[in-house]
């Protein structure tokens, strides 16, 4: 067992950890970056990038299928699964390569391999080979897909997103359990690439939408295209090795209690990810934990209590998306270097985007959050994309945008939307939200023609109209339990 001393120890070399390491070094401190798994980050290896590559192939197939509606007839569609997966893996490897180049540039003496756990507040042990004594520690350990033990017992054909991007060919059929962002993005992409896909949703919701109207419109648009079984639970999963190459027998139970057994090449568990905090020995770090075992921390400094421990990225489960991992890592690393003179870092307006079709975005304060923080004090404006000019031109006229504003100040608070170009509309709205614009100021901005943004203007005009009325009228919408 060797002992190493450092000023800052960073656990996890993902996006948050690398960002924390760089910030600590920029703060003039000695830092160590510890990693137990493969380098390359979740985002590049098995997350954002390969999933968007698969979606890009699916969009190409979808465009061909959609073409006849414009009078364009491209001929029979042939999807070569091996070629699809070769591009996904090839481009994925290129993105991972850029991350590995970054790791390569970190001096060898700053990089340590092994699983880290706390022995005391500033004391870590790596596997059985190294003790680290650090003035401050950043926890940037990421998250892991959740697979219930009884599902695992059905064998290797029960998979998570971690396995999908290593396929060398597209399978015949996939059952996707969970209609969160991973389930929808991957389920729709595989469906469009000719895989028989069934999605199982425990409840009636899709992705992170909390606004009941947007959620309903989104669920309807998605259910028009996909085989989604809402209100349906998984009753049992069993390996069915007799079939060609093996299958999984999935038994589901619908809301009426009816059982149905179907066979799939794979079952993709997409029921959420849990932060990697369990094996860290946090009890030895003397940190106060929440009911999920995650250290309590300050969202502006990323400091855990008054300790010299900081947390960032998926590990804290606050906003488990890539831009947040980078921001939180930078703040945590900077403050780990400054400790005890910590200072608040820049936390941006929340923005999440699901790359399904219709795309789904949540900006600023969600409907659910506003029902708590602004009950009776916010108004809603809306637009349907069904008859929105440019959306109809492109035959992408599905979805709805709802925008929220504050009575009195007239300030724009947030939005939920499912619709065309939501990735861009989401940014526009997030920038307005962060700039603390009023709805009136947003309506003073230029809008070209014919563009999807004109739909945003319609929703904002509707919001301005409601903001000019009495508050009571609006909060009827905030029914309990929404
Ligand atoms: C399929 C999928 C698609 C996604 N798509 C998007 C998207 O389009 N846009 C978006 O913004 N986000 C997306 N995300 C989310 C995004 O990938 C994550 O939020 C982000 O990668 C988290 O970064 P991180 O640094 O917190 O964790 P990671 O990159 O996972 O890094 C954590 C590291 O810590 C290491 N580690 C864990 N425990 C220990 C220990 N005890 N000792 C040493 N090392 C340890 C792990 O091995 C890992 O390398 C997607 C995620 C998935 C799974
Ligand atoms: N475009 C993006 O930004 C993007 C893409 C993919 C992943 N991600 C990140 O990855 C995280 C994890 O994604 P995810 O889709 O796995 O999680 P999620 O939390 O978004 O969705 C999980 C879904 O599974 C359901 N569920 C939970 N337990 C279930 C069960 N036993 N049976 C059936 N359904 C069940 C939940 O109700 C929920 O709808 C996301 O929170 C997101 O931050 C982001």
What number of structural domains do the residues give? 3
Number of separate helices: 15
What gyration radius follows from the Cα positions, in whole Å? 24 Å
Kindly report the CATH topology of the largest domain: FAD/NAD(P)-binding domain
- Strand content is 15-25%
Q: What's the CATH H-level superfamily name of the largest domain?
A: FAD/NAD(P)-binding domain
Notes on the structure:
Its cofactor is FAD. α1 runs parallel beside α9 and α3 runs antiparallel to α4. The longest helix is centred in the N-terminal third of the chain and has 24 residues. The protein is globular, with a radius of gyration of 24 Å. Strands 1, 2, 3, 4, 5, 6 and 17 form a seven-stranded mixed sheet that branches. The chain has a five-stranded parallel sheet with strand order 8-15-9-10-11. The protein has a five-stranded antiparallel sheet with strand order 18-19-22-21-20, sandwiched between helices. The chain folds into three domains: 208 residues, FAD/NAD(P)-binding domain (3-Layer(bba) Sandwich); 123 residues, FAD/NAD(P)-binding domain (3-Layer(bba) Sandwich), CATH 3.50.50; 117 residues, FAD/NAD-linked reductase, C-terminal dimerisation domain (Enolase-like, domain 1, 2-Layer Sandwich), CATH 3.30.390. It contains 15 helices and 22 strands. It has 482 residues and is of the alpha/beta class. The mean pLDDT is 96. It is 33% helix and 24% strand. The structure holds flavin-adenine dinucleotide and nicotinamide-adenine-dinucleotide. Nicotinamide-adenine-dinucleotide (NAD) binds next to α7 and β18.
């Amino acid at each position: 067992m060797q002992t190493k001393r450092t000023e800052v120890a960073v656990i996890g070399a993902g996006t948050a950890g690398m960002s924390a390491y760089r910030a600590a070094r920029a703060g003039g401190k000695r830092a160590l970056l510890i990693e137990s798994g493969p380098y390359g980050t979740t985002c590049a290896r098995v997350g954002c990038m390969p999933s968007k590559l698969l979606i890009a192939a699916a969009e190409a197939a979808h465009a061909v299928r959609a073409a006849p509606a414009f009078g364009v007839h491209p001929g029979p569609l042939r999807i070569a699964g091996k070629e699809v997966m070769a591009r996904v893996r090839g481009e994925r490897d290129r993105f991972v390569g850029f991350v590995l180049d970054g790791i390569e540039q970190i001096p060898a003496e700053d990089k340590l391999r092994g699983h880290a756990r706390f022995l005391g507040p500033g004391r870590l042990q790596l596997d059985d080979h190294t003790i680290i004594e650090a003035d401050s520690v950043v926890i940037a350990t990421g998250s892991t897909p959740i697979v219930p033990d009884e599902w695992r017992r059905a064998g290797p054909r029960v998979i998570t997103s971690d396995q999908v991007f290593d396929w060398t060919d597209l399978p015949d059929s996939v059952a996707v359990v969970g209609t969160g962002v991973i389930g929808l993005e991957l389920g729709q992409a595989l469906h469009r690439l000719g895989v028989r896909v069934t999605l199982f949703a425990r409840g009636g919701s899709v992705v992170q939408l909390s606004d009941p109207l947007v959620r309903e419109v989104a669920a309807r648009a998605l259910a028009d295209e996909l085989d989604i079984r809402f209100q349906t639970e998984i009753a049992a999963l069993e390996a069915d090795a007799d079939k060609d190459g093996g299958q999984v027998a999935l038994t589901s139970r619908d809301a009426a209690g009816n059982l149905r057994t179907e066979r799939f090449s794979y079952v993709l568990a997409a029921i959420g990810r849990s932060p990697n905090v369990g094996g860290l020995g946090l009890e030895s770090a003397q940190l106060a934990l929440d009911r999920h075992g995650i250290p309590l921390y300050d969202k502006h400094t990323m400091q855990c209590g008054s300790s010299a421990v900081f947390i960032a990225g998926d590990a804290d489960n606050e906003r488990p998306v890539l831009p947040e991992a980078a921001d939180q890592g930078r703040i945590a690393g900077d403050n780990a270097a400054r400790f005890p003179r910590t200072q608040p870092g820049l936390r941006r307006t929340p923005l999440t985007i699901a790359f399904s079709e219709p795309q789904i975005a949540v900006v600023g304060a969600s409907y659910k959050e506003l029902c708590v923080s602004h009950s009776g004090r916010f108004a809603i404006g809306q637009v349907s994309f069904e008859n929105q000019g440019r959306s109809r031109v492109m035959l992408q006229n599905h979805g709805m945008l709802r925008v929220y504003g504050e009575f009195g100040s007239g300030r724009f608070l947030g939005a939920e939307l499912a619709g065309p170009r939501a990735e861009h509309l989401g940014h526009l709205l997030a920038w307005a939200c962060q700039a603390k614009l009023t709805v009136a100021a947003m309506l003073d901005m230029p809008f070209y023609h014919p563009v999807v943004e004109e739909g945003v203007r319609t929703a904002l005009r509707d919001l301005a109209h409601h903001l000019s009325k009495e508050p009571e009228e609006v909060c009827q919408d905030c029914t309990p339990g929404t």
